Hints:
The protein is of the alpha+beta class.
Amino acid sequence: MAMLHGKTRLAAITAWIAHAGQETLALAGCRHRGRDGLLAAPSPRTVTRLLGLAGAKALAGAVNAYLAAGIAAEPPAYPVSGPVLQPQVACDGKAARGALRGDGTPLFILSAAAVGPLNAAAGAVVIADREIPSKTNEIPEIAPMLRELNGRFPLAGQVLTADALHTQDGFAELACGELGAHYVLTVKKNRKNLCTALEALCWAGARTHKTQDKGHGRAETRSHLVMDAPEEIKALFPRVEQVAKVHRARTVRYWKGDGSTWKLVTKTARETVYLVTSLTAREAGPGHIAAYIRSHWGIENQVHWVRDTTLREDDSKVRTRNRPRNLATLRNLTSGLIHQAGLKDIAATIRETEYDKDLLIAITRLDPAL
């Protein structure tokens, strides 16, 4: 509730709690009363101590399960007549800047978020995460995270997306075999032979889809070329049914000058990336694959970026014990509740909830009658 009132630093959070009114304390479920019979808020030291003592894994699991339960369960879709957009879960990792574990190593968390219009009402919602141990990386940790998620949020029929680090045979087999899901994965030089083979393909007869976006002084054009995976590609990567080649051209225009003389500068950057997917042409056309690619960035733009900027995670001075991860979990809860309430703009919503009690109740799903 403090974060929904724009309090992002721990000191501001504890101060807001300490000065919360009777109505707010009752809404939050406060039970302790002072000698005067009034509800008494926990002191700042108590809140700070609790954030350090509370089990980070247990808290994250409870929050993730709560948010996952807020997503309507849909039966797996197996298109017959033609391609349809299917629900999507995006996986990505993030380091908590400045946060250290007990052994002095940085805190790094791998997350899975429900993204896209079929899984999240207005934006990405984190429904699973896993702390990455200091002596390993994301690759061996993504399977346990997805298996645990599958126990409470069935992944059958979902489209799983992840960055090129996870373009691994094991991930593809896990997704399509054990989980009954699909994958859309980027191919880079970490899979050298596969990347070289995709570059060598003749894309002349590929099915195409083009998108254009403009705004904030920039324009971006994306051309998607999609075709059935040839046998030589299927021999290099399991379960692949289609391959894609994406051209991106981004043009930025801005004024540059020294205060007296100004000129309009135009710069264009171009990029080509390749992808593999287990979705057949009957299940996903070029436009659907383009949608999965764009939706994947929801975990970066609508979760990680929001935590860094709107909720000021990168400015946090909290460094020790379980506090950094627990605060990250509460930031995920804050943005997830806002998105599940059908609201896209996190910053604007937080400004409104400071003055609109009904909006606060709607977002937190708390019952004022209790």
